[in-house]
Amino acid sequence: MPASKILMITGDFTEDYETMVPFQTLLACGYTVDAVCPGKKAGDTVATAIHDFEGDQTYSEKRGHNFALNATFDSMRAEDYDALVIPGGRAPEYLRLNADVIKSVRHFFDAGKPVAAICHGAQLLAAAGVLKGRTCSAYPACRPEVELAGGIYADISISEAVTDGNLVTAPAWPAHPSWLRQFMAVLDAAALLETNAA
Questions:
Q1: Catalytically annotated residue among 120, 136, 142, 176
Q2: What's the predicted TM-score (pTM) here?
Q3: Is 29 considered catalytic here?
Q4: Confidence band (pLDDT; 50, 70, 90) for 190?
Q5: Backbone phi, psi, residue 116, to 5°
Q6: Residues 37, 51, 65, 119: which is the catalytic one?
Q7: 5: phi > 0 → left, psi -120 to 50 → alpha, else beta; which?
Q8: Neighbour-count burial of 102, counting CB atoms closer than 10 A to its CB (0-12 exposed, 13-18 middle, 19+ buried)
Q9: Per-residue pLDDT reduced to its tens digit, 123-152
């Protein structure tokens, strides 16, 4: 029954699990997901990084897989999508410098569409100026960015997620079950609202 068309904005050294798991899970649940990266086209790949929690003061980083994009950033229009997914990893750090990415992220908030961000994805949300007054989880090292952007940092377990209206966020990939379950609930609620309004 899901008819939602979802945009995933990703980039080189995106976190492996935070890109591949939501992409494949949402496809398996019947959603359409277009994964794009600025400067790349459908069929190109982005390099991924695997972030593990191994008892050090921060995550470790290892080279992951090559993730194949299935849509082209330059030809996509945010208006054509019902929801947005922002994986974490290293990609948000440089994607937030791209004015077209920022404009796309703002569109989803201006339109009240569902948005899911995980881990360092909050860096894109902060740069887009969409966190003022919003509760947002992220990797703990991103807490200052969330708070400096006017957001309320959700200090939750690494396996939990939080929903604030149309925004679903989580600290890192161990939260996937909770994060994806909450995001799909928001997607279903948005689809129901749209159906009732039609």
A1: 120
A2: 0.95
A3: no
A4: confident
A5: -120, 125
A6: 119
A7: beta
A8: middle
A9: 999 999 999 999 999 999 999 999 999 999
The residue type of 63 is: R
Look at the block and give the residue holding tokens 């949300």. 125
Q: Is residue 37 flagged as an active site residue? A: no
DSSP sequence for the chain: ----EEEEE--TTEEHHHHHHHHHHHHHTT-EEEEE-TT--TT-EEEEEEEE--SSSS-EEEEEEEEEP-S-GGG--GGG-SEEEE--BSHHHHHTT-HHHHHHHHHHHHTT--EEEEGGGHHHHHHHT--TT-EE---GGGHHHHHHTT-EE----TT--EEETTEEEESSGGGHHHHHHHHHHHHHHHHHHHHHH-
